[in-house]
Write a structure and sequence with these properties.
Blueprint lengths: L1 H9 L9 H8 L7 H4 L4 H8 L1 H9 L5 E8 L5 E7 L4 E4 L14 E5 L2 E5 L12 E5 L4 E5 L10 E5 L2 E5 L2 E2 L2 E2 L2 E6 L4 E6 L7 E7 L2 E6 L6 H6 L11 E6 L4 E4 L2 H6 L4 E4 L2 E6 L4 E7 L4 E8 L9 E5 L2 E5 L5 E5 L5 E2 L2 E2 L2 E3 L7 E9 L1
């Protein structure tokens, strides 16, 4: 009885006088922008909001909110993050990265669960790195994760079914026809290789339970030149490859998909969208059944500042360019006036930062 009494007295309810499930029901509906205030109420509340139970509850009940993060390089060549304030329609400096990533180029970035991961990268005086760090949005802190099995620079990274995939890239002057898979539950990587995987990958998406990668064109790649210190690398003709993790198999995709994937891509509700800037600026959609590209609408060239990146939150696509100039397209309300899409824009920063990657992270 004494032991039971001690256990009972050490228990602290989330909200005094309420069962914990009712308290969680109430608190989980507080908007994300106020979560930092909730953490200040008590240690019990902080532990709840920083824990996995909170994250899973909000996700399962469609209460989680996605914020857009941009990994950038400032005018002094330092890696930095910006966060999009959707209410005020502006970007704001967000958080310093871990020191070892500050001056690297060729860093890969991806969101998984409630964390943002930074992988690899290199410098002129430093070969490719195998280091991985992650930002936990619930605790607002950085921590180290298990290193890659293979050091990589300029690889692509995608999340699929609760795992990360780091594909291609270069390491110590060698091209990598391989990929590493990360399991967050065991905090460990496994490595795989296949000669069909070309290391120079321009873009990647997760679609229909598969990973799709766009291999490069026949151009001299400036990223490869900087890494190889003056040498150049010529990529083969453009190809799209698809990887099925359930079968551990790669396959080449038909040329129709390749022909229209000529810009940054994003997946919304199982549909692939691409920003085509070859002749003006237009948003294209891949029709999987007919295997054809369909124009969604044109954007004003005055609003976009290439090179652009795409990121989606729900049915909204953010087109993010140089200096974090941003065009917001709501696909539910997409309409055309005189051939131009109706959307709104977010002004660029006063300084021209280079955008490396853009990700949405939901809590």
């Amino acid at each position: 009885m004494e032991g039971g009494g001690e256990m009972e007295s050490s228990y602290t309810p989330i909200i005094s006088g309420l069962p914990d499930d009712i308290a969680l029901f109430c608190l989980a509906r507080v908007p994300r922008r106020y979560h930092h205030v909730l953490k200040c109420v008590s240690r019990r509340w902080r532990a709840l909001i920083c824990g996995e139970t909170w994250h899973l509850y909000r996700r399962e009940h469609n209460l989680d909110e996605a914020w857009v993060y941009a990994l950038c390089r400032d005018n002094e060549g330092r890696t930095c993050f910006y966060l999009l304030d959707a209410e005020r329609r502006c970007w704001k400096p967000f958080h310093d990265v871990m020191p070892q990533f500050l001056k690297r180029t060729g860093i890969a970035c991806e969101a998984l669960g409630k964390k943002l991961y930074l992988l690899g990268g290199c410098r002129l005086v430093e070969d490719a790195s195998d280091e991985v760090c992650c930002y936990d949005a619930s605790t607002n802190s950085w921590e180290e994760a298990a290193p890659l099995k293979t050091a990589r620079c300029y690889c692509v990274c995608q999340a699929l079914n609760g795992r990360l995939y780091a594909i291609g890239g270069m390491s110590s002057g060698s091209n990598l026809c391989s990929w590493d898979t990360y399991d967050p539950n065991s905090n460990s990587w496994t490595t795989h290789s296949n000669s069909i995987v070309f290391p120079e990958i321009e873009d990647s998406v997760a679609l229909d339970e598969k990973l799709y990668i766009l291999c490069g064109e026949k151009v001299y790649n400036p990223r490869a030149m900087s890494f190889r210190r003056g040498t150049s690398l010529i990529s083969p003709k453009p190809e799209v490859l698809a990887y099925d993790p359930s079968e551990d198999a790669w396959q080449k995709i038909d040329n129709n998909m390749v022909s229209g994937w000529c810009g940054p891509a994003v997946v919304v509700d199982g549909t692939l969208y691409v920003l085509d800037q070859n002749s003006g600026t237009k948003l294209m959609m891949w029709e999987a059944k007919s295997k054809d590209w369909v124009a969604v609408g044109r954007l004003s060239t005055w609003l976009t500042r290439p090179p652009c990146h795409l990121v989606a939150v729900g049915r909204t696509i953010f087109v993010i360019g140089m200096g974090l100039s941003t065009v917001v397209i709501d696909l539910n309300m997409a309409a055309n006036v005189d051939g131009m899409m109706v959307c709104y824009s977010i002004p660029k920063l006063d300084c021209d930062v280079d955008v490396i990657s853009c990700k949405a992270l939901a809590i």
